[in-house]
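Section 3.1: Structural characterization of target chains.
Under the original work plan, the team committed to producing a structural model for every single-chain target entering the pipeline before any wet-lab resources were allocated. The record below documents one such target. The sequence was received from the expression subgroup and is listed exactly as submitted; it comprises 286 residues.
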Amino acid sequence: MMHRLGLLILGWAMLVGLGACVSVQVTPYDLGVALQDRGELPAALEHYKEELAVHPHHLRARFNLAVIYHDQQKYSAAKEHYALLLAYYPNHARSLVNLADIAEAEGDLVQAQRLLQRAVEAESDRAYPYGFLGRYLQQQGQLDAAQTAYERALAIEDDVLTRYRLGTLWLQRGQVIEARQQFTRAVELSPNDVKSLYQLALLALQSGDSAQAIYYLQRLTVLTPRDPDIFVRLGKLYLEQGHYTTAALHLWEARDLQPDAPEVERLLLQVYEAILQQQRQQVTTP
């Protein structure tokens, strides 16, 4: 939606610049969306308010205004606009989900769950309310109910995030095989899903499958090149396998990202000692 409106505004600007005779009406809401896309939130807020002054029932303008306040953690203003929207559209599930997020942030867990249940009832044919409900129930330790919510969501739409969350739920239960299945499916849906790849790497490490762990960690070095933990883990693996030069290269990367980290310095010392020992053996070998 936002990209379509952005193209509309771009087209309008081109027409004006070329002196075209065609008149394209651009509303304050259109400008608000364009500004929000560019991160100019104060200006976007003003345009949404201008739109709502003329059209107070404009659902998208009201929702976008509430979302900006929500993201800024101005919860009172966000709640006011979500409530106004729900007064016109009582079954607007995304507003209910967002209000639940605010309630949870403010510590009102009863209200958060009640709002999420309302969202599920409002749009029972959509996956995302079940996904949010599952996340909340999982955080509260209600794993059976969370699993049911996730499975309901996946029955509607096979979603990467829901697969990942269900995988973490299986880990909480100590069910490694089921967890791996969910993370693997998430990566099948989105090959660059960093969180699922990382979990698969950890599971490979725990099972002693060094080759598989290296495979996943190497993929992560491309996707998250600023994460020193990935390079440290790779350095350890290559050190254990006796690939000392490769281990050093990865540990140097980790040190560049996180200077003076004691673990990295300790591992590098082990690598240097191993290389020196290897060189001594080569010299003494006839």
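Residues 1-74 form one domain.
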